[in-house]
């Protein structure tokens, strides 16, 4: 499979790019940091502005699927996240690519009372703006035409940590976090990337959000 990863110079996008390449897929790594992209190795590297439709369309052409894994640490509103989501949605048709997988946020998942984690007292303030922006991006995906084959992967609301794969994760098909038998929800970046590539290889959650976390 030919997979374009937008945000490959970031920690999550880079994890997805490495996981996909490690499984033998042809990866186009797209990002803003040329130095970080160069360290990935064994991949086609493309520079593009994630919020510019023409730039993205040119970078993703000739791929079978696009992964969007972007964030923005430059300002308080994180507005680049929904901007990038809309730009990629608009670019898909121009590039004749119709499969999109996005790594989003977990803050808009629902707790046991059916309320969003991001709206609860105690949600980490430093993550609130990004969680809300990721929620906007999810809403954009949910409003796309049926012709767009999208999926959106949410990590646990709080416990997503940098790290390699260890395996043993489970997935859940709704707006609540996947958990282990004790009700805990946590996963490493390596295993979150593996869950996303699993979905690209064996689709289960077309036009839906799913979540992933360690089980048992």
Class based on secondary structure composition and strand pairing: alpha/beta
Number of helices: 6
Integer average pLDDT: 92
Could you give the count of β-strands?
Answer: 10
Shape assignment: globular
Give the H and E element order: EHEHEHEHEHEEEEHE
Q: Which range best describes the helical content: under 10%, 10-25%, 25-40%, 40-55%, 55-70% or over 70%? A: 25-40%
Instruction: Report the span from N to C terminus.
Output: 32 Å
Structural domain tally: 1
Superfamily (CATH H level) name: NAD(P)-binding Rossmann-like Domain
CATH topology, anyone?
Rossmann fold
Rounded to an integer in angstroms, the radius of gyration calculated over CA atoms is: 16 Å
Strand content: 15-25%
CATH-derived architecture: 3-Layer(aba) Sandwich
Give the low-confidence spans.
none
Look at the structure and give the CATH class: Alpha Beta
Strand sequence of the main sheet, in spatial order?
Answer: 3-2-1-4-5-6-10-8
- Major sheet: 8 strands, mixed
């Amino acid at each position: 499979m030919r997979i374009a990863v937008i945000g490959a110079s970031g920690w999550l996008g880079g994890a997805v790019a490495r996981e996909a390449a490690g499984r033998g897929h042809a990866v186009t790594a797209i990002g803003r940091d040329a130095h970080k992209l160069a360290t990935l190795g064994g991949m086609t590297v493309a520079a593009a502005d994630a919020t510019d439709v023409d730039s993205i369309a040119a970078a993703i052409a000739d791929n079978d699927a696009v992964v969007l894994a972007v964030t923005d640490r430059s300002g308080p509103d994180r507005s680049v996240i929904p901007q990038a989501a809309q730009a990629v949605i608009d670019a898909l048709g121009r590039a004749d690519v119709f499969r999109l997988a996005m790594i989003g946020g977990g803050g808009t998942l629902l707790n046991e009372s059916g309320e969003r984690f991001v709206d609860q007292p105690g949600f980490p303030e430093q993550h609130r703006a990004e969680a809300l922006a990721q929620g906007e991006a999810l809403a954009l995906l949910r409003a796309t035409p049926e012709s767009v084959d999208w999926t959106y992967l949410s990590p646990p609301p709080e416990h997503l940590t940098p790290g390699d794969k260890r395996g043993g994760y489970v997935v859940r098909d709704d707006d609540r976090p996947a958990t282990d038998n004790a009700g805990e929800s946590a996963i490493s970046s390596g295993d979150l990337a593996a869950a996303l590539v699993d979905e690209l290889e064996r689709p289960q959650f077309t036009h839906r959000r799913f979540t992933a976390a360690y089980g048992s």
